[in-house]
Amino acid sequence: MTDYVIRNATLLGERVVDILMCDGVIVAVGPKLEGKGAREVDATGLIALPGLVDPHTHLREPGREHAETVLTGSRAAAAGGYTCVNAMANTTPTQDSAGVVEQVLHLGKQAGYVDVKPVGAVSVGLKGEHLAEIQAMANSAAHVTYFSDDGMCVSDPVLMRRALEYVRSFGGVVAQHAQDPRLTAGSQMHEGDVSAELGLTGWPAVAEEAIVARDCLLAKHVQSRVHILHLSTQGSVEIVRWAKANGMPVTAEATPHHLSLDHTEARSYDPRFKVNPPLRTREDIDALRRGVADGTIDVIGTDHAPHPAEDKDCEWDAGANGMIGLETALPVVQQSLVDPGLITWADVARLMSYTPAKLCGNAGQGRPVAPGEPANLCLYDPAAARTVHAAEQYSKSSNTPWEGRGVPGRVMYTFFRGVPTVWDGAVRSREEIRKESHV
Length: 439
What we know:
The chain is of the alpha/beta class. The protein contains 11 helices and 21 strands.
């Protein structure tokens, strides 16, 4: 492998250092390091972060390769500064057995851009009727400890209780998509003044909050860990804050789009802004930002949800829910949280690397930029303002809500186990990565 020395990087936005990487490991961090024979990277003005870890990615393969594949999604992840993604279970077939999660794991290794960790389904076929092969997936080559029916709520409290009891035996986590199906039948957007104005069926905040409260109480009763995906309402933040204050084993996630975009976007009738849970109010956005800032919300996950053009280039009612977000997550977090002074770059490392890796059981990921650690690294230019164009991104799908909008920052280099997957702002070819990995 080629050795690299990163010159004059600003580590976590705090101090300027050199970083020496040899054989896929960080061997030294400090000023003016000797890098004899190492290839140099001038990182002046760049923020050095640990490789990002996404706890919430949809890669669509197997079954919906027309929207995304493990390979194209992995490239998009690398472009966004990620070195690990956790691939959600709503594939076809569903990731509800050892065979399917091992297939996804294998596809990730073949791609070679990031660690792809399959998330196991909670229920067979995501139908919420019978538990999936949880133990078999945990014992498989994929070693799954993180389970979710994301896209579908585990609405049956008995099934949710059983799932929590089951994963407790090996320290696993159940991640919940909090949506009461009865309260959201036919819903199209956030229930409020804009939905009334547009005549669209609303998705009330209480449909999320009721499930969040129930599952916090179930987690306390069972003494097993529950993670609440993509919080979107002020009430959900308050419930999680209360649950943590009372010692309940709960963690929570926010997405970049729920931290920045509100329900007034629906006035465009552009399905790129249609997502589940829906975009909420400015008051909800402010509450989410406060929740991130005070530690109520533990991680930021993209909920990267690719769709082919025909699923978004249509009327609002027929449009699919979901947005792509791997390549814009870090700039949107900078814009929404860092630049306003709500969090620091050290907080970004915690929210988007350390804690997600721990939550999802991603060994070797989410480690400090320190000697002896795997050389997973993101070098980010916070001053490289740009305009987002889907045609310039690496995802196979184009359903970004930031099309034509300006965002700050750009990932300039991503190192995955010491091998650059992104160089000077461009994703490298798989052939280049494979060649260097085997030198």
